[in-house]
TrEMBL record:
Gene Ontology MF term list: hydrolase activity
UniProt domain Xaa-Pro dipeptidyl-peptidase-like: residue ranges: 17-138
Stored InterPro entries: AB_hydrolase_fold (IPR029058), Xaa-Pro-like_dom (IPR000383)
Protein name (database record): Xaa-Pro dipeptidyl-peptidase-like domain-containing protein
A Pfam family that the UniProt record links to this protein: Peptidase_S15
Gene3D superfamilies assigned: alpha/beta hydrolase (3.40.50.1820)
Length: 224
């Protein structure tokens, strides 16, 4: 798993990158939790999501947002971090121009950034939104949400109360042409304490079903 440094809008960004053996393999990018609250690309959930994609033959990248680790710049309350994510996707796509499909996975703050990236990049086919915080961040930009994906959260989450996540899910489920899958994990808090293995099992099952052609609208998606 090579350590990589690539250009971002505010300077260099530090990442971990695992290319797939197949030139046209799908791409996955994994986004970490809030930089001001200890979030880094080495967060255990981010790390395990990374390897979930690697094990299924994806070309995969996780990276530190600006100001974290060896990434340059300073925290920018989301706007700069979205630009970081777009630059990261540009970088990995430049190395893999034959890839036709992209996925984005984000945890907590990273889920908010990931969903914004989804709106900007039509090549993103699927998403994982782990413990999103619609009570803290504005998700109204998802109008409409362009891709099918999984929203997974815990019923004991005090950071992002389940009722707020449910409101977001209900809104997205009214949209045509996509399939929003929701998993509410019993007993899980925002950090999935003692339940990381179950979280990853749920995510892996979803990804395997999507790769088998399930859980999404059958119509082809527009490609960049």
């Amino acid at each position: 798993m090579p350590e990589v440094i690539f250009a971002g809008p505010a300077g260099r960004l530090e990442g971990r990158y695992q290319p797939a053996k197949q030139k046209n393999a799908p791409i996955a990018i994994v986004l970490h939790p809030h930089p001001r609250f200890g979030g880094t690309m080495n967060n255990q959930i981010v790390y395990q999501l990374f390897y979930m994609f690697v094990e299924r033959g994806f070309t995969t990248l996780r990276f530190n947002f600006r100001g974290i680790g060896r990434s340059q710049g300073e925290f920018d309350h989301g706007a700069g971090e979205l630009s970081d994510a777009a630059s990261a996707l540009d970088w990995i796509q430049s190395l893999h121009p034959d890839s036709k499909e992209t996925w984005v996975a984000g945890y907590s703050f990273g889920a908010w950034i990931g969903m914004q990236l989804l709106m900007r990049r039509p090549e993103i086919e699927g998403f994982f939104s782990v413990a999103p915080q619609p009570n803290t961040y504005d998700f109204s930009f998802l109008a409409p949400c362009p891709s099918s994906g999984l929203i997974i959260h815990g019923d004991k989450d005090r950071v992002a109360p389940p009722k707020d996540v449910q409101t977001l899910v209900d809104k997205l489920k009214t949209q045509k042409g996509i399939v929003i899958t929701q998993k509410t994990m019993e007993g899980a808090n925002h950090f999935f304490q003692d339940q990381t293995d179950q979280l990853m099992a749920e995510c892996a099952e979803y990804l395997d079903r999507r790769l088998a052609g399930e859980l999404s609208d059958p119509r082809p998606k527009r490609i960049r």
